[in-house]
From TrEMBL:
Coiled coil: none annotated. InterPro entries: Carb_Metab_Mutarotase (IPR052996), Dimeric_a/b-barrel (IPR011008), Rham/fucose_mutarotase (IPR008000). It comes from Sphingobacterium suaedae. The lineage of its organism: Bacteria, Pseudomonadati, Bacteroidota, Sphingobacteriia, Sphingobacteriales. This is L-rhamnose mutarotase.
């Protein structure tokens, strides 16, 4: 099976990391979903928002789509403090503007990313014997 290396990122972290998973529901409108995807593309995303995400300690962030549901994976160092980081992120340049711009696509209420995205609980992993 041939894979596109740009899309596959398997790394062995040199220290412990945390992984957070979140979900958000988009409006069930194909044109709006296409625009949402386009605004998250490498070409059209807002660099200041991406820089802010990194500034608060997020090492990697990926978003996946299934119909009108988006699923986000966030990787951080083990000592990452979620609430403090997202409180800081909400104050960084263009973050509030980005969140406002994203509201037209989202079925969820809230002004900040932390208010819109719902964290998920892990219920399974490949247990050690």
């Amino acid at each position: 099976m041939k894979t596109n290396n740009k899309d596959v990122r398997h790394t062995m972290p040199s220290k412990l990391r945390k992984r957070y998973c979140q979900i958000l529901e988009l409006k069930d409108d194909a044109a709006l979903i296409a625009e949402y995807i386009d605004l998250h593309s490498e070409k059209k995303h807002w660099k200041q928002v991406r820089d802010g995400i990194r500034e608060v300690g997020i090492l990697e962030m990926e978003i996946y789509l299934a119909q009108n549901h988006v699923f986000m994976i966030v990787e951080t160092d083990a000592d990452f403090e979620w609430d403090a980081a997202f409180a800081k992120l909400a104050q960084l340049p263009r973050q509030e503007e980005w969140e406002h711009a994203m509201q037209k696509f989202q079925r969820t209420a809230g002004k900040t990313s932390a208010e819109k995205w719902k964290r998920m609980d892990r219920i399974f992993y490949l247990y050690e014997d």
